[in-house]
Write a structure and sequence with these properties.
Blueprint: H1 21-30, H2 47-54, H3 76-82, H4 91-94, H5 97-111, E1 119-121, E2 131-135, E3 144-148, E4 151-155, E5 163-164, E6 168-169, E7 176-180, E8 188-194, E9 197-204, E10 209-216, H6 218-230, E11 245-246
Antiparallel strand pairs: 1-2, 2-3, 4-9, 5-6, 7-8, 8-11, 9-10
Helix pairs in contact: 1-5
Length: 248
């Protein structure tokens, strides 16, 4: 997700133990991670996933590492990846050096000045796994954090939600419109209806257990935008008719 609100983007920290990408990639190389094709490989990673992670050459950007290429709808091959629902990580994948490298590279990519983003999802960098990196505007210092195996697990409607006939809560009434952009849909922005109070579920590292967390405000909007990516959905699929426009 690109910056569509007037929030200041700040550098943050990894929501897990940080390890230099150069060292991680070197370890992967020394372990002999050289595969071909798209079949399953060691620890559940596919050859194409390992190729994306290990082919990045450490550089000299602001975080001391290179960034990943962001896929866009302008490329037909990219669009196929962006529209593919994502799979979960296995426990062994989450404890691997490749996962640490991917997390660090996603954090570097979304924070790079060329992207100016507040969130990024796995498929946007060619990895069809349930992983997002999100800026937590609701935390001190507004850090960027990584969340694997993430899902929106609930919507909080408050004490007096609007009701439909029959006393059923009106979920649509709890949504609010707001402007959104996307790193994978460059040059456009539009208004989307989103909840402002949700629950997320993800795998906590290094505890390796699923946990649920309540998210509110603009940060909740970011999580919904990024989790849509994991289901092959783009914000332009949900944009309020007539609100989509070109931008610089």
């Amino acid at each position: 997700m690109s910056v569509s609100y007037k929030y200041k983007k700040m550098k943050g920290k990894i929501h897990m133990r940080a390890v230099p990408v150069a060292a991680i990639l070197a370890s992967c190389f020394m372990l002999g991670v050289v595969l071909s094709g798209g079949c399953s490989s060691r620890g559940g990673w596919t050859a194409s996933e390992l190729d994306i992670i290990s082919s990045v050459i450490p550089g000299t950007d602001s975080l001391g590492t290179s960034i990943l290429r962001v896929l866009t709808i302008a490329d037909p091959d990219d669009s196929l990846v962006l529209r593919t629902p994502c799979a979960d990580f296995t426990p062994s994948m989450l404890q691997s050096p490749e996962f640490e490298a991917l997390s660090s590279l996603m954090l570097a990519t979304v924070q790079d000045p060329s992207e100016d983003g507040v969130g990024i999802a796995g498929p946007q960098v060619g990895i069809s796994r349930r992983i997002v990196a999100v800026q937590r505007f609701d935390k001190p210092g507004e850090p960027f954090e990584v969340y694997p195996n993430i899902r929106i697990s609930g919507v909080n409607l408050g004490k007096d939600p609007a009701l439909l006939p029959g006393g059923v809560p009106d979920l649509n009434a709890a949504m609010e419109p707001g402007p959104e952009g996307c790193l994978s849909v460059p040059g456009r922005r539009g208004n989307v209806l989103r909840y402002r109070d949700i629950d997320i579920q993800y795998t906590l590292i290094p505890a390796m257990r699923d946990t649920t967390e309540r998210i509110q405000g603009f940060t909740a909007v970011i999580f919904q935008h990024e989790c849509d990516h994991l289901d092959g959905v783009l914000y332009i699929d949900k944009v309020i008719p007539g609100s989509l426009q070109e931008r610089d």
